[in-house]
Write a structure and sequence with these properties.
By secondary structure, this protein is of the alpha+beta class. Helix content is about 35%, strand content about 25%. It has a single domain, classed as Aspartate Aminotransferase, domain 1 (Alpha-Beta Complex), CATH 3.90.1150.30. The chain has 4 helices and 6 strands, in the order H-E-E-E-E-H-E-E-H-H. Strands 1-2-3-4-6-5 form a 6-stranded antiparallel β-sheet. The model has no long low-confidence stretch (mean pLDDT about 95).
């Protein structure tokens, strides 16, 4: 997945917003909460996962616990090199991350955003 494809895909998800942070990283949020990052320095894609998925994904070649986030006990994975996930699986992981983060928003905020 290219950076452009990543941004187009994230933009297609419900109620998302974009901001460039940390110099050159593309950060996607839902309800003001981050759900996906394209790291400008490493060309890695970082996303939130469920705890059980974290245990499985961190062992796959090309994937690792996300620097900084995972070291603080959060279940974030970084896709940083091949083979990693195929584009379809990566898109599913991004949708799941969006869903996980959106489900943590208040019911009121979810309604306001049409989630």
């Amino acid at each position: 997945m290219t950076r452009e494809e990543f941004n187009q895909f994230c933009a297609s998800l419900t109620a998302t917003t974009y901001v460039m942070q940390w110099g050159s990283s593309d950060v996607w949020k839902v309800g003001g909460k981050m759900f996906a990052v394209w790291s400008g320095s490493s060309n890695g894609i970082t996303f939130k996962v469920e705890k059980v998925d974290f245990e499985v994904l961190q062992e796959m070649p090309g994937l690792r616990p996300a620097p900084y986030l995972a070291s603080r006990g959060m279940t974030w994975i970084q896709h940083y090199e091949a083979p990693g996930l195929e584009d379809e699986l990566l898109q599913q992981a991004l949708m799941d991350s969006h869903r996980i983060v959106a489900s943590g928003l208040s019911q009121k905020k979810q309604r306001e955003l049409g989630l």
